[in-house]
Amino acid sequence: AERHGLSSLILHSSIKELKQVIDMGIPPIVILPGLHDVVQHASIISGYDDNEKTIFHYVPEQKPSEEGIQVGVIPEKRFEKLWSEDGCLMVLLGPTDIISSLKSDENKTKSNRLCFESERLSLQKQTQETIDSLKKAVELNPDNSTALCLLGGVLNEQSNPDCVSYYEKSLEKNKNCYLAYRGLGNFYLKNQQFDKSEKNYTHAIEINDNRFGPIYKNRGYVRQQQNKMNEAKEDYQSYIKFTPNAKDRGMIERALNEM
Questions:
Q1: What is the pTM of this model?
Q2: Residue 36 zone, left/alpha/beta (φ > 0; ψ -120 to 50; rest)
Q3: What radius of gyration do the chain's Cα atoms show?
Q4: In the prediction, which pLDDT does 17 show?
Q5: What whole-number distance in Å separates Cα of residue 89 and Cα of residue 86?
Q6: Which residue of 39, 75, 78, 227 has the fewest CB atoms within a 10 Å radius of its CB?
Q7: Residue 185 has pLDDT above 90, yes or no
Q8: What does the pLDDT average to over 99-108?
Q9: Residue 64 has pLDDT above 70, yes or no
Q10: Class of 2-100 per CATH?
Q11: According to CATH, where is 1.25.40.10 located in the chain?
Q12: Class of domain 105-174
């Protein structure tokens, strides 16, 4: 976008600021939870209705759900709750004069940009560069829950126990950080600390019970390891429900028949 004469800004924002940006003629891009086996997705916000208390957004091929989400429309309170899970991140692209008129903290915006750059580095398998980028992001803004959670995730992939403190710090900044609880669950699962793993998976599910289907398979496994067979069976059933196209569906169904 910047190569085409546009400026960009990445913010941890609010509903009030979101509406102000829309009123300025800039459709913001927000990061929202995914569904089934997709952890996150980006959505373009095209408008809002203060009378109906709804937010208009664009998500390709989205279907209605029991939570009140319809194609292109989501209740404002529901939107705010979902948005908070990833720190109310908002990406703005627009003419330089408009973007520069928005008030923002330079260190915070640099920190947010480094988070996005670290995602690119991670996809390129540049692990140390990813860690360095995220540590710089945290240095610029110690309150950046996104940077803390991402850093925890990279360290978790390296089986580095330091990931725990970063996840916990992320949760101190954003108590609704689903991914931090999920990350802690994964770390404790790998280390066979099944009680702690179950506890953190449960916290994540309490925040959003249909965000990521595979979390139920993981919690089912750790419950099975603790001989909580009825609860494990329920989790495996939820995994199939929320991940209908899972490649291991047949195997899970056979396991359920044997439980």
A1: 0.90
A2: left
A3: 20
A4: 94
A5: 7
A6: 227
A7: yes
A8: 89
A9: no
A10: alpha beta
A11: 105-174, 176-259
A12: mainly alpha
